[in-house]
Design a protein that fits this description.
The structure is a homodimer. By secondary structure, chain A is α+β, with helices and mostly antiparallel strands. Chain A is built from 14 helices and 23 strands.
């Protein structure tokens, strides 16, 4: 009896499915009595750490130093850049009391660390020899969300905010850094099997103070897009506000150019949401907290199975994150326990395997069973890991590609904006899911009209060919924008 | 010319020495414009991570699950246990505003996580099968310190608070856990070459709500003791306040027994303070961010040294955290750079080493030079690491032991308390440094008298032999207490 995994959770019950998997796989507990704040449980936290260790390696390879900046930001420093204040004034938590005393200076909980970092950068940077400066940190951060919060996706305490900040001598170098950041994120999401599109946000939707904002979006099973990473070119906005100047080779003091880029635990949520099935989590082997579980199938009449399982464990333990499950439970219960947690390969060891010095491997992604000799078991599992990773990539990519459509025009035959976005919205005005690339003329007015029905993600980051088709206003289109519904 | 390291910073200039090493080795920057908050720099943060990864392994081996609990604690939960409120009411930061709005419920920044954790434990624990529960986290925490703050040692944002919390069915099991916690900390500090004494705190100096508090103390170069770890037996204080009950095997619902134990970045500060010398940091090889640095000594007339250095690098790179320093600087500058950062072994490669296919190794702890064949270099460095660790342990232990003295009586000949503590305080009333173990009768009154002059650390945790000598009151002594000056 081979189980049949259903590829993706149907969008109709995605939210319930997600909450149930979070609970059953012991990822996190969001019954903490504060909206938008949750408790990470050991299995979930290990998954989170494995994921961010992928990022840690990528950032180390590309010359980023890991730092830690204070959580608390004095009001005077927080209030130095006008766009920034405006962007965050409704979202910042303020500490006003220490003990029973009112503080002289209010302290903001970091909603992101531009202000404390750039204050310090202005002390650290004196000359061109101090540039480029590239640092990052993995920290908790806070937003007083007024929208409905969602575990992993919209939080008041974001526990896993990875923010990188760089400073450069020239605009050219800073723009190159933007490209490197995009490359790093591509490699990151590729290693996690998360499909994405990359869009340049429209000017009215940029990060406060940014000259350019680039966003990575994935699509969740209910068809909505989720922003999973952003890269911002800041130009000299902050270097002027925070006085980040350097003495250049030509003896002239100049303001520096800056970039910043971030991701959060939304990546953890995305992996869960995109790859999970009716049996629970399905995890890419490289980040699975437990990669292999050995389940002995013992019978009173046949001694030695447990001993043989230990022999198998000894063979595997230096190669994989492996668990030998010797609990006093029926095999079926154990299968269920580890399937929910997405363990990529289960090793079943019964009397038959013991007798023939073999092992039966079961893939979590397809439930396919493979018999192997004990001598080949390490190599066979490594091979399976590669197959599992490719299979996960292929099936999610083909689904993802089917969710991103192109339209020849934003206008339908009837000429009304309402059914123009026919790929996304059905005749009853319901969102159908996915992303559509539509041609527009480029006038903000037209985008505003469109944004009454759908969210505008922005232009594709990658170069697009010749633009064809007609804008909503009837003029020939000059560019492409992506539209969808965002989380 | 062999350099001669001075073993320990003289206590007269310890604070300046410490601040200078923090600056030169790029550990942290405490010029952040908020008292008691600092910025960890990349080298310091890597050191910090290596140190806490030692703890992570120890806690994993002993069955502790790593979790993450929210920073923000709603006032109602924070205020559930009376001793706890009293202990922390003067030290807690309160968030009162979200954006421009006043919050309905004030939120505390965690000063420690008993209250949020135990609130959740009461939901998680239903039966004896859920016990023991053993979790820990590494988080930032906040205390509104009114005393003078000190980098690493007394902070308002403690960035690296490792707190473990356990729940048990019986008092006996909880007390066994206390012993395991003490064992874990011993192994932790041993691996870091930090010497310590373990004392039972007197009842008036316990953690708020605890039945017993056990503290690890080291001694800093200025002779003051620094609390570097605590283990608390909580009994049922919190289980009753937070309603942590379980259905026992006998069908009766019972309150659980609890423990908690913590350390912080004081361990990082201690390693720096205790092992550093006039040339900067000296780090145990197991936690050094860079374990080996290769410095080529090149001459225009002798080509090939850089290539040979790369060959050496290739030999070492899979065994150690190794850096090949190819910067355009003089070797002397490079030596200085890496000595300040405490790199345990420097590999010097010049024309002579190239010719003879050898390498010259220089130990950071003694500056001893050792020549080795290229073929033996990996084994030789491993050997040196062991020697360096033992040497660091031996020299710090002998110093530490010389700082802990025993007294036969607390009374001097003159009978005045002032000079009774002659080991600690000189004739001018100045603190001389170290710890003294003195006999006392056990009455709180006598302890209070003593505490006017020195701080009472408590009784030794280890069993002591027969107690001899006289108390300050003239009665025969019944126990031993340790006294000192604390940070």
């Amino acid at each position: 009896m081979v189980k049949k995994p259903r590829l993706l959770p149907p969008k109709s019950n995605f939210p319930e499915w997600f909450d149930q998997v979070m609970f059953l796989a012991e990822i996190a507990d969001f019954t903490y009595p504060l909206k938008g704040c949750g408790v990470w449980l050991p299995f979930g936290w290990e998954l989170r750490n494995n994921i961010f260790n992928v990022m840690r390696r990528l950032l180390k390879e590309t010359g980023h130093g890991e730092v830690y900046f204070p959580l608390l930001i004095p009001e005077g420093i927080f209030m130095k850049e006008a766009h920034f204040i405006k962007g965050f004034e409704n979202e910042v938590y303020w500490v006003t009391h220490g003990g029973l005393k009112e503080l002289d200076v209010k302290l903001a909980l970091r909603p992101t660390s531009e202000t404390p970092m750039y204050h310090m950068f202005s002390k650290w940077i004196r000359s061109h020899a101090d540039l480029p400066l590239k640092v990052w940190q993995l920290v908790n951060m806070f937003r007083y969300e007024t929208k409905a919060t969602r575990p992993m996706f919209r939080l008041r305490e974001v526990t896993s905010f990875k923010e990188a900040h760089t400073v450069h001598a020239t605009e050219e170098e800073a723009l190159k850094q933007v490209e490197q950041a995009v490359e790093i994120y591509k490699r990151f999401f590729d290693q996690l099997c998360i499909p994405y599109i990359i869009s340049k946000r429209p000017p009215y939707d940029r990060f406060p103070g940014a000259k350019e904002s680039i966003a990575f979006e994935t699509i969740l099973p209910d068809g909505r897009t989720l922003q999973i990473g952003t890269v911002h070119y800041l130009g000299q906005t902050f270097s002027k506000a925070f006085n980040i100047k350097f003495l250049d080779r030509d003896g002239v003091e100049k303001y520096a150019y800056q970039t910043c880029y971030g991701v959060s635990e939304r990546v953890v949520g995305s992996i869960i949401a995109l790859h999970g099935d009716d049996h629970g989590l399905v995890l890419p082997p490289n980040i699975a907290p437990i990669q292999v579980v050995i389940v002995p199938i013992t019978f009173k009449e046949v001694p030695g199975v447990e001993e043989y399982s230990k022999e198998v464990y000894e063979k595997l333990k230096n190669h994989f994150r492996v668990e030998l499950d010797l609990r006093e439970k029926r095999p079926g219960e154990k299968y269920y326990h580890w399937e929910v947690r997405g363990v990529p390969v289960r090793v079943e060891i019964g009397p038959e395997e013991m007798r023939s010095k073999t092992a039966t491997l079961v893939r979590r992604d397809t439930f396919e069973r493979i018999k192997t000799d004990l001598d080949d078991v390490v190599g066979k599992i490594e091979e399976l890991f590669n197959d599992i990773k490719s299979n996960m990539e292929n099936r999610i990519t083909s689904w993802f590609e089917s969710m991103v459509k192109k339209a020849e025009t934003f206008l339908s035959l009837s000429g009304e904006a309402k059914d123009a976005v026919y790929h996304l919205i059905d005749e009853n005005g319901e969102f159908k899911g996915g992303v559509v690339e539509v041609p527009i003329c480029g006038d903000v007015e037209c985008e505003m009209k469109i944004s009454k029905f759908v969210d505008i993600l922005g232009e594709p980051w990658e170069r697009v060919g010749e633009v064809k088709g007609m804008c909503i206003c009837g003029k020939p289109a000059r560019k492409i924008v992506r539209v969808s519904k965002q989380y």
